[in-house]
Amino acid sequence: MKVVIGISGASGAALGREVLRQLGAAGVETHLVITEGGERTITHELGPDGLQEMRRLATFAHDIDDLGASIASGSFGADAMAVVPCSMRTLAALAHGFGDNLLTRAGDVMLKERRRLVVLPREAPLTEAHLNSMLMLTRMGALVAPPVLPFYSKPETIDDMIREMAARVLTWLGVNPGDALTRWQGL
Predict the structure, then answer these.
(1) 0.85 cut: is pTM over it?
(2) 9 is in an annotated binding site
(3) Domain 2-180 falls in which CATH fold?
């Protein structure tokens, strides 16, 4: 399986890192693309080695400006893509078909090819423009899932919350997260 992971400038770099880690543990080939804003956020939230760590976790890392990269074409055959975290700028670009960088072009490919696109928007509160972009993406077949934690998993640490949310992303991508996901067992 081949999965594209996009990371844009919204807060939540640790979520993207954990998704990459879990996909790697599941044996999934990953193609990473990070916006300039994403690079700044990763460095701020994960420290000076955060970018190198992200690239190390990915099978392949692509430059944001390389519109000729493999993931820019439907013939490449990526099975799914997640944008985690997703800024409102990237959300709007995806909703309106602005393939102006490799991340938004790869997302556009997922939509036009009717493949899985999972978007984790990070913003609060939301404006009507944000909500309209989410609705547009949902109507096009994307799964829009703000990272909202299921508290029945009884997280004790931030790492527990991140691990749980990342496992959910894997399920939405069609990858079995194994024991990383707390499954509802009923009351």
Answers:
(1) yes
(2) yes
(3) Rossmann fold (3.40.50)
